[in-house]
Design a protein that fits this description.
The structure is a single chain. With 287 residues, this protein is α/β, with parallel strands linked by helices. It contains ten helices and seven strands. Strands 1-2-4-3-5-7-6 form a seven-stranded mixed sheet. A hairpin with a 6-residue loop joins strand 1 and strand 2. It is globular, with a radius of gyration of 17 Å. It binds zinc ion. The site of zinc ion has 3 residues, from loops.
Length: 287
């Protein structure tokens, strides 16, 4: 089953940065400027939902690659909107409640690469791929802004939300580098199982996409900053599937991708949620 139904025609994507930002903040969230892109061209925003000073904070970053991957920002926006309005989707309310009950708060960077969003580019203004820049001793402004706020928030879980240009469906995955321990491996497998179950289609394993390079956000976030217990942040990436290999940005495709993205966010969020582990039976019964 798909967790979320009835999105077609409801959420409209906007390719213009200001237009997207004007759709924010979602209900019950606060938005702040946390820095600027290279050349001070665009403010970079952070959105707070719930208590981000709490221990269990989910950190989301979307639209770092802003060319074919810009609907990730819309997926995250609508995900937060749904969490803020549990009664808006009564069939899914139990999942919404599990997420709301487990996480103290969510911190979201809607568009990590604003220049790319406006210019249909994977890269920033200087031609740099932000998601390869996290190991650079002199990072781009966008990279530094993200590093600074992650170090302040100290989330327990961080997901970098991307799209995979392939015919596959949504995938939730985390890095499986050789330095990743068994707890990570367990949660990766768990995420794949839950995604497959909730989406009613086989979610893919990270191995099909390759390992995390040193400059990727998920690698940096999982190894350098710490959570509020001074432990490793559970850090990963979501690659939302695209049914069109050409990377079309037509509204119809964007609507589909946004919807799959919302499902992927629910899947991975539940997979990393101990409350869901204890309530798995209700899912297995077809609820
Ligand atoms: Zn990407």
């Amino acid at each position: 089953m798909n967790i979320i139904k009835g999105f077609e025609g409801f959420y409209i994507a906007d390719r213009n940065y200001d237009g997207f930002i004007s759709s924010l903040p979602p209900t019950n969230t606060e938005m702040e400027i946390i820095g600027y892109s290279e050349g001070n061209d665009f403010p970079i925003y952070g959105v707070k939902y719930g208590d981000v000073t709490g221990k269990n904070v989910l950190f989301l970053v979307s639209s770092l690659h802003s060319s074919t991957e810009w609907s990730t920002a819309w997926s995250c926006r609508n995900f937060l909107e749904i969490l803020s309005n549990p009664n808006s989707h009564p069939d899914q309310k139990k999942y919404i409640d599990l997420i709301n009950n487990y996480y103290d708060g969510i911190y979201w960077i809607p568009i990590g690469n604003p220049w790319g969003y406006n210019n249909n580019s994977r890269l920033n203004k200087n031609g740099v791929d932000i998601n390869r820049d996290f190991a650079d001793p002199n990072p781009q402004s966008e990279t530094q802004v993200i590093k600074t706020i992650v170090n302040q928030i100290k989330p327990s879980v961080l997901f970098d939300v991307h799209e995979k240009i392939s015919p596959s469906l949504a995938l939730a995955s985390i890095d499986e580098g050789e330095d990743i321990d068994n707890t990570y491996r367990h949660k990766t497998q768990r995420a794949i199982e839950i995604s497959t179950m909730l989406l009613n289609r086989q979610a893919q394993h990270w191995g099909t996409l390759g390992g995390a390079g040193a400059g990727e956000l998920r690698r940096w976030a999982g190894t350098v900053p710490k959570n509020k217990d001074n432990e490793q942040i559970e850090s990963g990436i979501i690659e939302i599937g695209d049914s069109n290999t050409s990377g079309s940005v037509e509204n119809k495709m964007i609507t589909w991708r946004t919807k799959q993205g919302i499902n992927a966010l629910f899947s991975i969020t539940l997979a990393f949620n101990p409350l869901f582990e204890r309530n798995t039976i209700m899912v297995n019964k077809g609820g």
